[in-house]
User: Fold these one by one.
Assistant:
Number 1:
Amino acid sequence: MSRTGLGSEGELHERAFRVLDSFDIEIPSWGFANTGTRFGKFNQPAAAVTIEEKFADAAEVHRLTGSTSTLALHVLWDLPNGLADADAVQALAAEHGIRVGSINPNLFQDQEYKYGSLCNPSKEIRGRAVAHMLDSIAIGVRLASRDVSLWLPDGSNYPGTQSIRQRIGWLEEALAETHAHLAPEQRLLVEYKPFEPAFYHTDIADWGMALHLAKAAGPQARVLVDTGHHYAAQNIEQLVAWLIHTGMLGGFHFNDRRYADDDLTLGSIDPYQIFRIFHEIQAAEAEGLALDVAFMIDQSHNLKGKVEAMVQTVMSAQELWLKASLLDRERLGELQERCDLVGAEELFRGAFYRDVRPLLAAWREQRGLAADPLSALRTGDYMAKITRERGGRKAGGGSYA
Ligand code: LRH
Ligand code: MN
């Protein structure tokens, strides 16, 4: 009987392998591109610029980790000609064995979005923003991708300069029209963010606003939780529990942060945060709730090597997901029931402290993967190859992809 109350070592391995076999986390195409802050961007010779290179890097991460079968696309960054680029993207997906994941509209670059996109006081500009949403839906249908994942930078910088309630009305209209054009199998994920780039009010600032807007839009809309989009004092796993309880949890953008939306690598600052979120999901599934939650990474690797940071991120996610899955939830329930606070906490933290790396290495070897994907990347020839191929070109100065 192993310490976890999970039967013999053999049963533990069997359970761990089953858990890891079904774990998959989506990679953001923009995670491989040169990105920066408003103070500039440090270009990396091996950074991906073309969508072909982003698929190639995603395929390498999947080859090494076995858990990243889809790639999220940002429409104007990856399909600058919209639907016209879809066939070429589909061909790349097939060539690299990576399926197209969520489709992310770009409603934050165009000059005309200065005062907002779907919430802009100008009816014409709102109309063009909705048109971009419908293009994104069409691209999703053509690429057999299920989720249209919407983040809106819309907001204002000074009190009194915009009508917050009028903008809510325009947003509800725009999302209802968007929802009406979704294909039956598609979902609209509504992402919230408390601030940046707007610094007085953001139109979709928190989970409650996103939940209301998703419900108002229609039955195929859900809420997306970006772990970096919370005030430091917010209890993220509690709002995740609420979104599970209300049946409105659609997906995650995982990353880490010390201060604000820092987009650092998952588990680099507060791995216990991700463990607590994973526990809420696994506990709900263990109680029989049928969750349909998309796991995605959303990071910008301003200093770390792009591919290296992505492999490191996936390994951290695998570890934390496995740790949470090996928690003896039955025992935890008993301890919670009789309010044995220290007993419950020690069991809960014990699962987090458990070193699951030997189990992970065994699973990887069993599945023909590198026991340590990160050192395999660092000692392999992929990085040298792409640095040679991509290194010569002059990279642009501005921030983001
Ligand atoms: C906004 C965000 C959003 C993406 C962008 C790259 O901060 O989290 O999900 O569109 O990052
Ligand atoms: Mn995000």
Number 2:
Amino acid sequence: MSTPSTAWHERAAGLRLDGRAVINGQRVAAVDGQTFAKHSPIDSRFLTQVARGQAADVDAAVMAARAAFDDRRWAGKAPAVRKKILQRFADKILAAKEELALLETLDMGKPIQYSLSVDVPAAARCIAWYAEAVDKVYDEIAPTPDTALALITREPMGVIGAIVPWNYPMIMAAWKLGPALAAGNSVVLKPSEKSPLTACRLAELAVEAGIPPGVFNVVPGFGHEAGEALALHLQVDAIGFTGSTRVGRRMLDYAGRSNLKRVYNELGGKSAFVVFEDYADLPRAARTLAGSMFFNQGESCNAPSRVLVQASVAEEFTALLAAEAPKYAPGDPLHPATELGALVDETQLRTVMGYIESGLSEGARCLTGGRQARTETGGFYVEPTVFAAATPQMRITREEIFGPVTAVIAFETEAQAIALANDSSYGLQASVWSDQLNRAHRVARALRAGTVHVNQYDEDDITVPFGGYKQSGNGRDKSLHAFDKYTELKTTWIRLD
Ligand code: NAD
């Protein structure tokens, strides 16, 4: 009989896995037949062979997307019609909830309870939200003299290349697909080679929902092969990229070397979590920090991995945080109670362990965690780790670790806190914890980040923009602002006699 801990393993054994691309509404192998083996980070089990897309596959997908855009089979439909079809797509995602959640967990190691309660519903809500918005967004008429009429309209841009990472594979794809498809574009999605399975399944569900063939294509493969071919393609009008700052730089270069396609980068972060001594509920701040930091194994672009605490409460706060961390002990991602799953692969494990070693050798104090865990499984697990007595020069406080590791730096004054928080090449998110109204507003204004949280960290909704200042990127995903990325603004002058 199934127990809660075996039920998902049994379902996993019976799951249909298909790593082929989806081009023009059809499942297809790579043109040259090449594949790569996908293993699960949970226990290194073999999952399936995945199509290794290269330039020829990308070209086939882009030309299918271009044909679909040019004959207006999608862009030409009334917004209300696109709305209905996209709502059906969102419903199909929800109906396939357990299958998609299981694929996501097997592919990249996050706990099944969160794939079910966060990733699948958030992806569906994103698609549904843009569907619902698209027949409610009006264009403009400029205040011109009587002799003319000037219409300011938004038109779909054409073919969008979406290149996404492995940490929230479905949600990151949905943040591109929602606004791009609702606005009438065609899309070629290149998922990460570390998490390709849900993307391919989403494209099948889209076709079942009635999105015409060619409008939404998926080419799995490696970044330097399929990703580069997509970003260089002359028939791609814009790239919606989410990933590392290192690769984001390349996206700008690819655009410069090809057709100056628009590039919207959503990149890395090293978000500051600033706690002042006047904030009364330190246990709450510590609980929130641990929850946000260790969610998704710390593999979140907005993880609050730079903790700045006023010196007078630093010891107390750090002890509270260190007591929270062990509640996120790594466990079997397919067990429904597990809070912290596996890191995505061995490379990521080595990177995270390397940062832990550098924290120790640079003189930070490891209060809890710091070790690899569950090695007997063959998977890639790291204990939630808290460093104290860190300094702003250390690698663990400057570089994005992308694992369950956070570090506390003490500060004396408000001005020093602001300077330290802003002393980063990143600017994705930040938070300020203070019970003084003036201070909270003052510091929130001074922080150079795309999102600033006050006395909380975990609020998030499709209704608000998400993106960064500085080297955290330029575009904004989510909210109506995301339509700006996937539409061209046209002015039409009409003479009035
Ligand atoms: P990555 O940059 O290594 O890869 C991202 C995508 O780019 C993958 O699909 C990959 O195959 C592709 N790619 C890699 N090299 C390429 C190349 N030379 N040409 C074209 N494509 C290439 O990032 P990752 O390790 O998958 O993801 C982690 C990063 O993503 C972190 O830095 C994280 O902060 C960032 N991220 C940012 C946000 C955000 O909204 N700002 C959200 C999630 C993740």
